[in-house]
Amino acid sequence: NAGVMQNPRHLVRRRGQEARLRCSPMKGHSHVYWYRQLPEEGLKFMVYLQKENIIDESGMPKERFSAEFPKEGPSILRIQQVVRGDSAAYFCASSPSQNSNQPQHFGDGTRLSIL
Amino acid sequence: EDQVTQSPEALRLQEGESSSLNCSYTVSGLRGLFWYRQDPGKGPEFLFTLYSAGEEKEKERLKATLTKKESFLHITAPKPEESATYLCAGYYNQGGKLIFGQGTELSVKP
């Protein structure tokens, strides 16, 4: 039973380019969460999606960041016009439901480096 | 604003030296308290969920407990392979997001 799959594992972009991070949840999981881990900081929630719907985007920066979870295919976190401050590890997690008795399972992240 | 605070930030132990990691959390609205382990370059790995004060859960040499305002992760006779960062996270009445602490970086020397 494959876990949460994220790709790419490492992504290098120049300032001003776009970054696309992909996340395939565990089989049977329809809830996806994105978190960001900045250097020397803890994991911070960004966005929570269910198939085709954004449920909570309270942690997303207002500009340049967007997320989607289409009916078919992986969830995508998109960062437009990247800046140096976007360098971080981005983690995706999934769960079968929103209930607190269903833990979120994490992928191994995408390490984004901005030159 | 809901908060989760972990201490110490770093802990160095000798193999076999038992100790506890602390997690303090905002009490109001907590629906679950989660412990994860994170190895360098990896994502967090789920360990335990605790729901109510007095609850305890064990897994091998790890034991998690929950009081009315804190959670503890006790490690009995740790081995070097248990060196990792241990994360505590609270789940509140705000939908699906987890509020993470900064983590405790545990180093176990042989």
Question: Can you describe this structure in just a few lines?
Answer:
The complex is a heterodimer of chains A (115) and B (110). Chain A is an all-beta fold and 115 residues long.
Head-to-tail CA distance between termini of chain A:
37 Å
Taking all Cα atoms into account, the compactness measure Rg of chain B is 13 Å
**CA-to-CA gap between the ends of chain B?**
41 Å
> Which structural class do the helices and strands of chain A define?
mainly beta
Mean pLDDT of chain B: 94
Give the H and E element order of chain A: EEEEEEEEEEE
Largest sheet features of chain B: 6 strands, mixed
| Content of β-strand of chain B | over 45%
**Element pattern of chain B in H and E:** EEEEEEEEEEE
Q: Low-confidence runs of chain B (pLDDT<50, min 5 residues)? A: none
Number of helices of chain B: 0
The largest β sheet of chain A comes out as: 7 strands, mixed
The oligomeric state is heterodimer
What general form of chain B does the structure show? globular
- Number of beta-strand segments of chain B: 11
Share of β-strand residues of chain A: over 45%
What percent of the residues of chain B sit in helical stretches (DSSP H or I)?
A: under 10%
Q: For the largest interface in this structure, which chains are involved and how many residues does each contribute?
A: A-B, 28 and 25 residues
Structural class of chain B: mainly beta
> Whole-number radius of gyration of chain A?
13 Å
What is the count of β-strands of chain A?
Answer: 11
